[in-house]
Structures are given as structure tokens and as C-alpha cells.
Amino acid sequence: MASSVLLKRTSFLKSTVNAFQASRAYASVAVGSDLISAAPDVSLQKARSWDEGVSSKFATTSLKDIFKEKKVVIFGLPGAYTGVCSSQHVPSYKNNIDKFKAKGVDSVICVSVNDPYVINGWAEKLQAQEAIEFYGDFDGSFHTKLDLMIDLSSALLGRRSHRWSAYVVDGKIKAFNVEKAPSEFEVSGGDVILGQI
Fold it and tell me: What is this structure's pTM?
């Protein structure tokens, strides 16, 4: 009897969670959205050493400077030095950089809810800073505006970014992909977005 009640309760919880996930919009932006207008007061922090940060007076880069009159591929990920991010996500862009350039892409950008100093160290470790521009979203304001934040406290990461990718032309989103879970790597990789340009 008790196991029957527990089974029904578990089944109910699973169906409730699945219904919530199915109905949840993973972002407040979509194909056709203007990324600059979606987060007009947000700036990102270009990856750099601490000394470079000090000498630049901790300068940030506006979204307008990143996207205006440019063709940009941008991808977001949960965090520097994490598994899928390091072993699959970044390499999928680094290894395809010549193909992106051949399609007229001005820059390929990686952004994560990390400070720019951690992102810089990670980019150097991956030997990817020559191919990819890395930016920190140190306070999560960019991802929050786009409704792309997720609580990963269970993995001791706190609030982080979903795993996602976009092709953006002059600030307008032309292709947009968000993984169902941050541990998945099905739709946000370099090969996928290449096929959408």
C-alpha cells in the first residue's frame, strides 16, 4: 500500500516537472529578436589578466560594440574549467574557426557567468584565445536579461548560464539554439551553428 502511494506520488511529480519543462520558454529572445535591445544596459568583460584589468580601469564592452554592423557567432556555457564546456563545446568552435571565417563571420564569442580573469586563464589553457573571443558575464546580468540563467547549485556552481548558441547579424538573432539541460551537447555546438549560417 505504502509503495503504491509512493509510486503514484513519484509519477505525479515527474509528470508535473515534465509539463513545466515542456512549457518553459528557455529564453526571452528568439530568432528575429534584437540582442542589443533585449539587454540595452548590459556590458560584458573581455577576458584578460588582472594587470590588464587594472590598466584598463576595469573597462567593459557594450553589446553594441560587440554586435553592431557585424556577423557574430556567440555561444554561452555554464562555466570555465567544467567538463562538457572544456572537452566539447569550446573545441567545436575552435576547430571550425576557418569555416566560420569562410562564411563571413567577423567573430566567434564565448561567454560565461565567470569573471574575465578566470575566463582568460581557461582560454589560455585551452589554447583557444587566438580563434575565439572570450567574455565574462561576471554578475550574470547578460544571461538574466535573456532569461538564460539556471541554478546549478547541485553541482556547486550556483546560478549559471544555460548552454546555448546564436548567429547574430547587426544585433539581430538569425539562428538560436538552447540545450534542454546544461549537461547536454546536442544543438549548441559549432557544427550545428555552421549549418545554420
Answer: 0.80
**Measured between alpha carbons, how far is 76 from 63 in angstroms, rounded to an integer?**
15
Q: Which helix (H) or strand (E) holds 37?
A: helix 35-38
Q: Using the predicted structure, report yes or no on whether residue 73 has a pLDDT greater than 60.
A: yes
pLDDT digits (tens, 9 = 90+) for 10-21: 343 333 333 333
For the annotated catalytic residues, the residue numbers are 85
Question: Do residues 97 and 106 make contact, with C-beta atoms less than 8 angstroms apart?
Answer: no
Q: Which helix (H) or strand (E) holds 63?
A: helix 63-67
Residue with cell 575566463: 119
Q: How far apart are CA 128 and CA 139, in angstroms?
A: 23
Q: Which amino acid is at 82?
A: T
β pairing state of 71-77 and 107-112: parallel
Interior/surface letters 68-94, b for 16+ CB within 10 angstroms, e for the rest:
eeebbbbbbbbbbebebbbeebbebbb
